[in-house]
């Protein structure tokens, strides 16, 4: 294994640090995760934390190059790397990287995020998702969906990420479930109900009045039509269904169209169900899309 390792990919977010030891062709050789996300660190602590986390790999494999991406490159992270504007592919992202040298001599490459200057009223942004899209591949003109707290819908065109739009679906869901009167009374610990989720999706498809629709979660419980076990999944169906309706209205897909779902945060299957309800054909990306994308940008940077 020592002869195969060629680089390290670090996905450093708000709550965790994830690192992957990879070979030249992107094969994962080892993986680690710590709870030392950027929210737990102060300025000046990042380098020591990274060196400690990767110490055993450096000891075994030498001074491998490290690609760092995610919120670690935001203004709240180690170093703020400016966004690269759309349209962009690996070459444009590589040109926007910032390079440093670690104490052991390893090249440290901070990958930039991406922005869409054409979005209104302000440019849209992403950090990390663009790497997943690049890793999935830019050879087809297609819409890519990246589920998450802040879901992204992106369009690949002419071998580049041409445009994208963010939907704060996951954040709205968490606020409703954890802090609103509307969803008070859902079963704890949470219960997943597949039928209630589909019920919420179908209701969302038939309604354009988002704020009124959300209140139905409350009235449904008062009327005895929606149980405590169903409530959480019903609300999730409502908000994801609204995302799909708004994405359709914004031109990201048409009925009987096609899209790809990229990401691995546990929401892919739910988004595939939503796509079926909205008559959108979908395929699912692979778990190593982020690693492959980071390597593509890293190789461009170091070549």
UniProtKB/TrEMBL annotation:
GO terms for molecular function: 2-dehydro-3-deoxygalactonokinase activity. InterPro entries: DGOK, DGOK_C, DGOK_N. One of its GO terms (biological process) is D-galactonate catabolic process. It holds the Pfam family DGOK. Keywords: Kinase, Transferase. Gene3D superfamilies: 2-keto-3-deoxy-galactonokinase, C-terminal domain, 2-keto-3-deoxy-galactonokinase, substrate binding domain. This is 2-dehydro-3-deoxygalactonokinase.
